[in-house]
Write a structure and sequence with these properties.
The structure is a single chain. The protein has a single domain, classed as Spore Coat Polysaccharide Biosynthesis Protein SpsA, Chain A. By secondary structure, it is an alpha/beta fold. The strands form 2 sheets. Strands 1-4-5 form a 3-stranded parallel β-sheet. A two-stranded antiparallel ribbon has the order 2-3. Helices cover 26% and strands 24% of the residues. A hairpin with a 2-residue loop joins strand 2 and strand 3.
Protein backbone atom coordinates (compact mmCIF):
# COMPACT_ATOMS: atom_id res chain seq x y z
CA UNK A 1 0.00 0.00 0.00
CA UNK A 2 1.43 3.38 -0.89
CA UNK A 3 0.85 6.69 0.87
CA UNK A 4 -1.98 7.69 -1.46
CA UNK A 5 -3.91 4.52 -0.63
CA UNK A 6 -3.80 5.10 3.13
CA UNK A 7 -6.76 6.72 4.87
CA UNK A 8 -5.85 10.25 5.91
CA UNK A 9 -6.04 9.42 9.64
CA UNK A 10 -3.30 6.81 9.18
CA UNK A 11 -0.80 9.10 7.49
CA UNK A 12 2.14 9.81 9.77
CA UNK A 13 3.39 13.41 9.95
CA UNK A 14 6.57 13.93 7.95
CA UNK A 15 9.38 16.35 8.64
CA UNK A 16 9.27 18.98 5.94
CA UNK A 17 11.57 21.94 5.33
CA UNK A 18 9.87 24.89 3.63
CA UNK A 19 12.04 27.23 1.58
CA UNK A 20 10.48 30.55 0.59
CA UNK A 21 12.60 32.03 -2.17
CA UNK A 22 12.53 35.82 -2.39
CA UNK A 23 16.01 36.57 -3.69
CA UNK A 24 14.98 37.77 -7.14
CA UNK A 25 15.09 41.34 -8.32
CA UNK A 26 11.38 41.42 -9.10
CA UNK A 27 11.97 43.15 -12.44
CA UNK A 28 8.98 41.53 -14.15
CA UNK A 29 6.78 42.49 -11.20
CA UNK A 30 7.36 46.20 -11.81
CA UNK A 31 6.58 48.97 -9.36
CA UNK A 32 10.15 49.80 -8.36
CA UNK A 33 10.04 47.84 -5.10
CA UNK A 34 10.99 44.19 -4.80
CA UNK A 35 7.89 42.02 -4.91
CA UNK A 36 8.69 40.34 -1.58
CA UNK A 37 7.94 43.68 0.06
CA UNK A 38 4.59 44.09 -1.75
CA UNK A 39 1.81 44.25 0.83
CA UNK A 40 -1.15 41.93 1.30
CA UNK A 41 -3.39 42.95 4.19
CA UNK A 42 -0.68 45.42 5.29
CA UNK A 43 1.95 42.68 5.54
CA UNK A 44 4.83 41.95 3.16
CA UNK A 45 4.22 39.06 0.79
CA UNK A 46 7.04 36.98 2.26
CA UNK A 47 5.60 37.22 5.80
CA UNK A 48 2.18 36.13 4.56
CA UNK A 49 3.81 33.15 2.84
CA UNK A 50 5.84 32.19 5.92
CA UNK A 51 2.79 32.40 8.21
CA UNK A 52 1.18 29.60 6.24
CA UNK A 53 3.85 27.21 7.47
CA UNK A 54 5.08 28.41 10.88
CA UNK A 55 2.50 26.51 12.97
CA UNK A 56 2.25 23.32 10.95
CA UNK A 57 3.23 20.17 12.81
CA UNK A 58 4.77 18.61 9.72
CA UNK A 59 7.13 21.55 9.08
CA UNK A 60 10.40 21.15 10.97
CA UNK A 61 12.23 24.13 9.46
CA UNK A 62 11.34 27.25 7.49
CA UNK A 63 13.93 29.12 5.45
CA UNK A 64 13.62 32.54 3.79
CA UNK A 65 16.06 33.24 0.97
CA UNK A 66 16.60 36.92 0.15
CA UNK A 67 19.01 38.81 -2.07
CA UNK A 68 22.19 40.30 -0.62
CA UNK A 69 20.77 43.75 -1.47
CA UNK A 70 17.61 43.12 0.59
CA UNK A 71 19.24 41.28 3.50
CA UNK A 72 19.86 44.41 5.60
CA UNK A 73 16.31 45.70 5.18
CA UNK A 74 14.80 42.31 5.99
CA UNK A 75 16.97 41.91 9.10
CA UNK A 76 16.31 45.44 10.31
CA UNK A 77 12.56 45.57 9.75
CA UNK A 78 11.53 41.95 10.15
CA UNK A 79 14.34 40.18 12.03
CA UNK A 80 12.45 39.94 15.34
CA UNK A 81 9.35 38.56 13.59
CA UNK A 82 11.39 36.00 11.71
CA UNK A 83 13.19 34.96 14.89
CA UNK A 84 9.90 34.54 16.74
CA UNK A 85 8.59 32.42 13.87
CA UNK A 86 11.76 30.30 13.89
CA UNK A 87 12.63 31.26 10.31
CA UNK A 88 16.22 30.84 9.15
CA UNK A 89 17.31 33.75 6.94
CA UNK A 90 19.81 32.98 4.17
CA UNK A 91 21.32 34.95 1.32
CA UNK A 92 20.52 33.93 -2.25
CA UNK A 93 22.93 33.82 -5.15
CA UNK A 94 23.22 35.85 -8.32
CA UNK A 95 21.24 33.34 -10.41
CA UNK A 96 18.13 31.23 -9.73
CA UNK A 97 20.19 28.08 -9.35
CA UNK A 98 22.76 29.59 -6.94
Amino acid sequence: MNLRDQPSDEIVARDVCVIVVGAGKGERFGGGENKIFAKIDDQPLFLKALQLFCNREDVCQTVLVVSPEDMGQVREKYGPNLGFMGVKLVEGGAQRHD
